[in-house]
Design a protein that fits this description.
This protein has 16 helices and twelve strands. It is α/β, with parallel strands linked by helices. The radius of gyration is 20 Å and the shape is globular. The structure holds NADPH dihydro-nicotinamide-adenine-dinucleotide phosphate.
């Protein structure tokens, strides 16, 4: 029986992971399920999967979790330290699906503990790529991409020599506002931004898709995960979201990963890797689809893409600063404190301001330095948002 844990079990990726695991309960022993504050959903799944422990990161949700698990024999815990302890428990496979930089340390601990870490939490690679890769190199653990684009690239690279790669093309749906007139973007509301044309995802990543901050994070993740020169990474808008990424080789061949937009493919691929097992995903009917279209990714509409280029060039702590400023600006937009278009401006102001601080960007990528950069960036972003 494989020992598995799911960090961020109550979210969109977590629920899709549970869907796959619940189809073969005899194959898995569930160690830990963690959530933020949704104690009811967490308890329901912990009971259904007979988990050893369920943890809510928000301690105020612990009494509700305890009550819901009473008599089940499942351990209940709450708070950040309990979350990290649960993530560190020995497991063969761990899904890292907490949203935001909050997912970095729990995933890192699981990796250091020797697990195969299925990485949906793209922020881990953006904030601390070298640290994650080192943990995978130095210990028994391994990293498997779950972001659909990175899973697609990973799959296209199987059996290939990385030195034969000429370019990586990351596709983007364009999100909720891809066809809006530019002058209307200022008026976009959080509810409008939180609708996605193709993918069913959590609220934050859906809004990040509309602003393309999600794509910006993915470009940085591509550089970090595959060790690719940023100049070799391209983005193209592909409104149908059927091609998840393409890898171009030096002989001119382009290998595309094509399939319906269903995260259970990438999750299932990581769950069964290196085997390819049957998955309950809809098969793509090419004739029904008829055509696939592509457009340039306009940096005027999506300035986050331009900012990502600067972050990839700067390296070091720039990714952690970029992500923390983005998370803070996103909070500001969700809470109606800033306009949709102001998010990119805030992130740029934070990057410019903190890049001028001697030694900050070039600091060694350690967990402490990343936390420190994250803290400073959030502080600065809050300052800029009140101006
Ligand atoms: P959701 O918002 O749906 O879920 C987030 C999960 O994290 C929930 O379990 C939530 O708990 C938990 N959580 C929130 N804040 C904290 C915190 N401070 N500490 C601990 N746990 C917390 O997100 P998604 O599932 O959409 O995304 C998860 C990650 O996967 C993100 O990094 C995203 O970028 C990435 N990803 C998502 C894709 C998707 O299709 N959804 C595709 C590719 C990548 P609760 O709900 O209980 O409060």
């Amino acid at each position: 029986m494989r020992r598995v844990s799911i960090l961020g079990a109550t979210g969109s990726i977590g629920q899709n992971t549970i869907d796959l695991i619940a189809r073969a309960p005899e194959a898995y022993h569930v160690v830990a399920l963690t959530g933020g504050r949704n104690a009811a959903a967490l308890a329901r799944d912990a009971i259904a999967l007979r988990a050893e422990i369920a943890v809510v990161a928000d301690e105020s949700a612990l009494p509700e979790l305890r009550e819901a698990l009473a008599g089940s024999g499942i351990e209940a815990a709450g708070g950040r330290a309990a979350l990290i302890e649960a993530a560190s428990r020995p497991a063969d496979w761990v899904m890292s699906a907490i949203v935001g930089a909050a997912g970095l340390e729990p995933g890192l601990r699981a990796l250091q503990g020797g697990a195969a870490l299925a990485l949906a939490n793209k922020e881990s690679m953006v904030c601390a790529g070298p640290l994650m890769l080192k943990a995978a190199r130095d210990g028994q653990g391994s990293l498997l991409p779950v972001d659909s684009e990175h899973s697609a690239v990973f799959q296209a690279l199987i059996g290939e020599d990385l030195s034969a790669v000429e370019r990586i093309v990351i596709t983007a749906s364009g999100g909720a506002f891809r066809d809006w007139p530019l002058e209307d973007l200022d008026k976009a509301t959080p509810a409008q931004a939180a609708t996605h044309p193709n993918w069913d995802m959590g609220q934050r990543i859906t809004i990040d898709s509309a602003s393309m901050f999600n794509k910006a994070l993915e470009l940085i993740e591509t550089k970090e995960f595959f060790g690719i020169d940023p100049a070799m990474i391209e983005t193209v808008v592909h409104p149908e979201s059927m091609i998840h990424a393409l890898v171009g080789f030096r002989d001119g061949a382009l290998m595309a990963h094509v399939g319906m937009p269903d995260m259970r493919h990438a999750i299932g691929f990581a769950l069964h890797y290196p085997e390819r097992r049957a998955l309950p995903v809809e098969r793509l009917d090419l004739v029904k689809l008829g055509q696939m279209t592509f457009r340039p990714a306009c940096e005027t509409r999506w300035p986050a893409l331009r900012l990502a280029r600067g972050v990839m060039e700067a390296g070091g702590m720039a990714g952690a600063i970029f992500n923390a400023a983005k998370e803070t600006a996103l909070d500001g937009f969700i809470e109606n404190r800033i306009q949709f278009t102001r998010m990119a401006a805030v992130v740029e102001e934070v990057l410019t301001s903190l890049s001028a601080q001697t030694g900050l960007i070039d600091a060694e990528v350690t967990l402490d330095n990343v936390m420190q950069a994250d803290h400073l960036a959030r502080q600065k972003a809050r300052e800029f948002m009140t101006v």
